[in-house]
Amino acid sequence: MGRVVIFGGTSEGRHLAEFCVRQGIPAAVSVVSDYGKSLLPESPDLTVVEKALSEEEMIEWLKAEKPELVVDATHPYADKATGYIKKNCDLLGIQRIRVVRTESSLAGEDIVVKASMEEAAAYLAGQDGKILLTTGTKDLDAFTVIPDYEERVFARVLPSLKSLEKCLSLSIKGRHIIAMEGPFSRDMNQAMLKQLGARFLVTKESGAAGGFEEKVEGARAAGAQVVVVGRPKDEEGISEEEAKKILSCRKDGRRKLFLIGTGMGGPGQMTGQAKDALRQCQAIFGSERAAKEAAEEAPDASVIKEYEPEKILSWLEDHPQTTRCAAVYSGDTGFYSGAQGLLKALEEKNNGQWETEVIPGISSLSYLAARLKKSWQNVFWASSHGRQVQIGSLLDQLASHPAVFLLTEGKESVNCICREIEKEEQKRKTKYRVYTGEDLSYENERIRAGRPGEMAVEEFSRLAALWIEKEDGE
């Protein structure tokens, strides 16, 4: 596979760099300190840049590296860096994934949440007692507004020369500097707070990787209040484990194509497996409606409104840098779906280049059956999409099946079919009952039932399905 760039300086970034080394994936890692560099493994496949890059320096570095993938594993609070990374990747057309930490619960009377370091410092300035700061040196200046901060504040920082110099420049020195690498256990946090006689512990909402829960538990055990600077809101991304899966799929050089059934299209219709796959994709193919809905799960992916196999394959040939994408289909991939056509085309032209995975969805048949509270296992099903349907032949199936399910096409399709059923009633001296499902799963979903003649004069939407049965006693 091609080169990967990782913006790190976090435990997640370090773990992903170590993963690349183990898997033999060439990678370049950006960290902001010598200490961060010292924690990374040495390998001919791994290069490390130790510098806080400006926006201009970052784009020049990315141009030089020419990565296939950029992994943003920067700290949850590094919102400026994340903004630069996104902007530059969009500009250069490089796929980017954001690795985020699972947020922790902030419930508890002994926890105070502040929106910024400045707000946290202002709060502490009005309190009495010693303070253990665990927020690093970047924002240490904010806490110099606290009266007698040189005596009240104890800074727990990384054991690097840069960290020590920062503390000393602010007159934080001697036993007020605790240079240690975390995360720390509950007992270690408790012991440290007790030893210092601290009434407050200040922390970022750093998730499990930052030892947040252990800080809270340790502070509670020591009788100290926790002052939390809440992380920036509305951050989207994937977990460290999901990032490893993406890297693994790229390792063997094969490109991956998901064929995904998205269900009926309404809220909650898409399966968790489908959502996970879409979040990994650089490009999404499908009809306008299906692709638009799928793109909500992958906002950084390109949306190509194509569903014909030849056009999809042509686009992929013209975009070799796209290594992970999805073709999406309404309903289920195995029920009157275009997925089979794409699979056949891939089989003919693949040459081993693409790995495929089919992810099923909720079909219109199973959905309508559920809404009608009926079983569909013995139902005869058919579709009028792009084909002529003989209504008489369909009704013949009711001799051996409890019902007929029919996908329709176009606004007038249901009316025409119901008129044909009414004619067959007169010929066969048999009564039928028709159920219609329109815009299934959407807010304007409508399900109706009636005799064919009654239904023939009603108005229906373009998206409709029929369920046909004999009347009781027929």
UniProtKB/TrEMBL annotation:
PROSITE patterns per record:
COBK_CBIJ
Q: What is its EC number?
A: 1.3.1.54
What range(s) does the Tetrapyrrole methylase domain occupy? 256-454
Under InterPro entries, the record lists: 4pyrrol_Mease, 4pyrrol_Methylase_sf, 4pyrrole_Mease_sub1, 4pyrrole_Mease_sub2, CbiE, Precorrin-6x_reduct
GO: which molecular function terms? precorrin-6A reductase activity; protein methyltransferase activity
Q: Pathway involvement?
A: Cofactor biosynthesis; adenosylcobalamin biosynthesis
Q: Which Pfam family, giving just one, matches this sequence?
A: CbiJ
**Source species taxonomy:** Bacteria, Bacillati, Bacillota, Clostridia, Lachnospirales
Gene expressing this chain: cobK
| Keywords tagged on the record | Cobalamin biosynthesis, Methyltransferase, Oxidoreductase, S-adenosyl-L-methionine, Transferase
| Single GO BP term | cobalamin biosynthetic process
Q: What is this protein called?
A: Precorrin-6A reductase
